[in-house]
Automatic annotation (TrEMBL):
GO terms for cellular component: cytoplasm. It comes from Psychrobacter nivimaris. GO terms for biological process: sulfate assimilation, phosphoadenylyl sulfate reduction by phosphoadenylyl-sulfate reductase (thioredoxin). GO terms for molecular function: phosphoadenylyl-sulfate reductase (thioredoxin) activity. Belongs to the PAPS reductase family. CysH subfamily. This is Phosphoadenylyl-sulfate reductase [thioredoxin]. It is an enzyme of class 1 (oxidoreductase). Gene3D superfamilies: HUPs (3.40.50.620).
Length: 212
């Protein structure tokens, strides 16, 4: 039970949404929202979730935590999507510059380096917590999918953050092949030259969906 959603039966809602289309899931979730946000890092297939939600709620706040380590291609992809979809993007950045961090940590710490957790805290988790604290959303749309990591196979379309924000994953049951079809149908761009320095390996969790 969440103070933000005191009348929501999460288990029942997840059962009710089984078999529903992503569009229907977004439509339902927006009925629960007074201040919804969607988070993005402009990784591959992000154009699908952004298009899916923004076509129903064009003015929705799009939260982008920019670590400062994205590839040139990812920044160009972000610029194109923000322009083409007329997204209402709010950008949060780490409190430390990449240059300061590179000097202090001798570059990006590897995942076996004891400093990697602090690196992840600085470039992703702290800015996200700060954003959620300041934006105060009650519904958080995200693009997680069941087939991405072992941890996510134990989740569902709906879950609650530690602060009681309703996290909604409309594409949870979808595969890359499904999203390829969606992108083609809607003439949306994709971009695969993406690197997340906090995850490094695709099957790792960075902590965003395990700690927040």
């Amino acid at each position: 039970m969440s103070q933000l959603h005191p009348n929501l039966d999460l288990d029942q809602a997840n059962k009710d949404l089984q078999g529903k289309s992503p569009e229907q899931i977004v439509e339902w979730a927006l009925t629960q929202a007074k201040n919804p946000i969607i988070t993005t890092n402009f990784r591959p297939y992000e154009s699908a979730i952004l298009h899916l939600v923004a076509k129903q709620r064009p003015d929705i706040t799009v939260l982008w935590v920019d670590s400062g380590y994205n590839t040139d291609a990812t920044y160009q992809f972000a610029n194109k999507l923000i322009h083409d979809l007329n997204l209402n993007v709010v950008t949060y950045i780490p409190k430390q510059t990449a240059a300061h961090r590179d000097a202090t940590m001798n570059g990006i710490p590897g995942i076996d380096n004891p400093q990697h957790d602090e690196f992840t805290e600085q470039v992703k988790l702290e800015p996200f917590r700060r954003a959620l604290d300041e934006l105060k959303p009650d519904v958080w749309f995200n693009a997680i999918r069941k087939d991405q990591t072992e941890f996510r196979q134990g989740l569902d379309v709906l879950s609650l953050s530690k602060d009681g924000v309703l996290k909604v994953a409309p594409l949870f049951e979808k595969t890359d092949a499904d999203l390829d079809v969606y992108l083609e149908e809607h003439n949306l761009p994709n971009e695969h030259d993406y690197f997340d320095p906090t995850k490094v390996e695709e099957s790792r969790e960075c902590g965003l969906h395990t700690q927040l």
